[in-house]
Amino acid sequence: MTRERALPPVRDWPAADLPGTDFDPVLAALMREGPPQRVSLPDGEGWAWLVTRYEEVRRVTNDARFGRAAVADRQVTRLARHFVPARGAVGFLDPPEHTRLRRVMAPALSARGVERVRERARAAAGALVDGMLAQGPPADLTEAVLGPFPAAVATEVMGVPAADHDRVRAWTRLLLSRAHDGETSERARRELTDYLGDLIGLRSDSAGEDLASLLGAAVGRDEIGLEEAVGLAVLLQIGGAAVTDNTGQLCFLLLSRPELAERLRSEPGLRPRAVEELLRWIPHRNAVGLSRIALADVSIGGVEIRAGEAVYVSYLAANRDPSVFPAPDTIDFTRDPRPHLSFGSGPHHCPGGTLSRLETAVLLDTLLDRVPGLKLAVPPEQVPFKRGTLIRGPEALPVTW
Questions:
Q1: CB under 8 Å to 190, separation ≥6 — which residues?
Q2: What are the φ/ψ torsions at residue 400 (nearest 5 degrees)?
Q3: Domains defined along the chain, listed by start
C-alpha cells in the first residue's frame, strides 16, 4: 500500500516573457517557500517537482537515481512543445551511453583544448568590432558582433578549413535566424549536416586536436557512429546561440549600468572575477530546461519524491541562494569565488562551459578596450528583448559611441 504524504499545492508557472534582466517573480516566490515545490508549466501534462536550493540542485543533478532517459517514456509538464525528447539525443541519455558520447568531445572542449583558439578568437572579435566601427554609429551590437562571433569561434574549435568558414557560418546564421521560413532553415540544417558528415568522415585516421578530427577518429575506432558524431558536431556549431544571448544580456547590463563598465575599464584585473559574477547573476533562461524522472524514492530537502515523478532543477535559483552567495541580488565583482551553476552540474553540465567563458571574456575585453565610448543608443526600456524563447536575450542591442 502506498503511504500517504503531505503534498504542497501545484503552482502554475506561466513563464511569461520578462523585460531586460528582471528576475522571474514566480521563481522568486517559489525560492522563498524553500523546499522542493510542485509546479505546472505551459505545455505537457501533470505537475513536476522543482528544486531550487543550491546544495539540493547539486545533489539531484549528481544522483543517478534521477534519470533523463526515462523522460522519453513519459508525458511531463514542460516549458515548450519541442522539449519532447528525441530518443538517443545526448541531452536525454544517461550514463554509460551519455558518458561514451561526452568522452569523445572532452579533449577539444577542455581548458587546454579551448586555449588553442584564444588568439584566433581575439582576432575574430577584433575584426568584427573593426567592421562595426568602420560602418559608424549607430549599430546593432547583436547583429554586428555578438551574433557572428560564437559561430566564428565554433568553426575554429571544429577545425573547419579556412576556405569553408564563410559557408559554415552562413548555414549557422540561416539555421538560427527567425527571419527566414522553415524550408530555408531546414535546407541550411541539411547542408550543414552533410558538410560536417563529410568533414568528420575524411578525418577518420586523423590525429588532430580539433573536434572534427576527434569525432572522425572515434568513428574510425567504432566508438561512436557517424550519425552520433555529426549530431555532436551540429550541437557545438549552433550552441553559440546561447552565447549570443548570454553576452547580449551581459552587455545590456553593463551599458544600462555604465558605472559597472567604467569600473572594469579602470580595473582590468577585476575582469576574470567579473565574468564569473555576471554569469552567475544574469537570468539566462526562462523557467527551467530539461526534466528528470526519479528512478527510486528519494528524500530531497525533507520532501519525499517518489519513483516515476518528474523533477526539475533551477540553476537560476541556485545561483541566488543566499546561503551560498550572500546578498545574491547584488552584483559584486569582488565576491569570493564560488562555483555558480550557470553551466549546470553533474554529468549533464554544459560541455561548452569552458569555451563559453573564453568567448565571454574575449568579447568583454575587446569591447571595453576598443570602444571606450560605447553606450546604448536608446533608453534601456526601449531595447527589444526576445519573446517566446527559452534562452533570454536582446533581439537587438542598439549602440552608439
A1: none
A2: -145, 175
A3: 10-400 (1.10.630.10)
Report the C-alpha gap between 324 and 55 in whole angstroms. Answer: 9
| Cα 268 from Cα 264, distance rounded (Å) | 5
pLDDT, one tens digit for every residue, the chain (401 residues): 456 788 999 999 998 889 899 999 999 999 999 899 999 999 899 999 999 999 999 999 999 999 998 988 788 999 877 666 566 677 778 888 888 988 998 999 999 989 999 999 999 999 999 999 999 999 999 999 999 999 889 889 999 998 998 898 888 877 766 556 668 878 888 999 999 999 999 998 888 889 999 999 999 999 999 988 998 898 888 777 789 999 999 999 999 999 999 999 999 999 999 999 999 999 999 899 889 999 999 999 999 999 999 999 999 999 999 999 999 999 999 998 779 999 999 998 988 999 999 999 999 999 999 999 999 999 999 999 988 778 899 999 999 99
Cβ count near 377 (within 10 Å): 17
The three cell numbers locating residue 298 = 528519494
Question: At 227, phi and psi to the nearest 5?
Answer: -65, -40
**Distance between CA atoms of residues 41 and 69, nearest Å:** 20
- Please identify which residue in the block is written with the cell numbers 552567495: 325
| Cell matching residue 95 | 550514463
Quickly list H helices, 138-292: 141, 148-158, 165-176, 182-202, 211-220, 226-238, 240-256, 258-266, 271-281
pTM (2 decimals)?
Answer: 0.90
Question: Do residues 40 and 10 lie in contact, with contact meaning Cβ atoms separated by under 8 Å?
Answer: yes
